Fold:
Amino acid sequence: MKATQIIGLLLIVAGTLGLVYGGFSYTKDTTALKIGPMELKVQEKESVSIPMVASGAAIALGAFLMFAGRIK
Structure:
């Protein structure tokens, strides 16, 4: 496989995952209070949404790269 086909395949997989899951979440640790050797830490849950348009564009671009890599 050529490099363009590999990148195209990765974009198709990433776009499909974006459509299926719609986003992801992660936990962020922050220090809320620090007094001498004692610390108070807070965990905040953050979430990131992936727009459907971006996922569709990634799939379309990946398909274009897959087929463009085959044409010579």
Q: What stands out?
A: The longest helix spans residues 3-21. The helical segments are 3-21, 52-70.
